[in-house]
Amino acid sequence: MGPSRLLDVILQQDRIENASKYPFQVPVIASFERLKLTKQVTFFVGENGSGKSTLLEAIALAVGFGAEGGTRNFTPNTTDTVNAVKPLADALRLIWSRKLSGGFFLRAESFFNVATAVDELGPPYYGDRSLHAQSHGESFMTLLAERFRGPGLYLLDEPEAAVSPQRQLTLLAVLHDLITRHPDAQLIIATHSPILLALPEADIISFDGDSLERIRWEDVPAVSVYRSFLERPEWWLTRILDQTDDD
Length: 247
Known about the structure:
A 6-stranded mixed beta sheet has the order 5-6-7-3-8-9, sandwiched between helices. The termini are far apart. It has helices at 27-31, 52-63, 86-91, 111-121, 136-147, 165-181, 194-197, 221-231, 233-246, and strands spanning 6-11, 34-36, 41-45, 92-96, 103-107, 152-157, 185-190, 203-206, 213-214. It has 247 residues and is an alpha/beta fold. The protein folds into 2 domains: 6-215, Rossmann fold (3-Layer(aba) Sandwich); 220-247, no CATH class.
């Protein structure tokens, strides 16, 4: 028997109530039909507004995680905002080899709200210390160490926003250790980080076109931009600052 995995994400067109409203007018979402997940780790990459976080959040809601993050049993909701991607989540059909019981949805954007909800539960805290008593990066890594272990589906939305490049290397090691120790652990990560994207044997899905496309690490635009800037910072600074002065 193979490992427990989420195998397919299918958009059921007959479940879409209004295709003219967000998020269905986002080009990738408008053309989306099916995403087959063939690897233990899948990365979503693309420009801001390309739909990668939108689809990730919709998958999280369809699985049963809270819109702001958490687990199926711990879904903090500290705002009254109606979740904009719920219509997409309601139209998704998830196909599993065997359904994963564990997991966590972690959003850097709403991590403060998750930390607040953890504090409200009272001690023992994750790591025996309030997440709000640590720096943003420290608390983020503490939560990863406490919750990202064992079998489960782990969804991360732009985790690099919370940690330094050095901590991204640590995060890379944590994620690699998780999937190496647990064949029934699966990761789906939306990111701009060339460091995280270098995780071996991962699938990289680009959202930058009108439809989803599998690409190589070296073809990720963020990788090219970082590499080019580090090789020729003076050229880039001259180009960018000259444009600013012209404006």
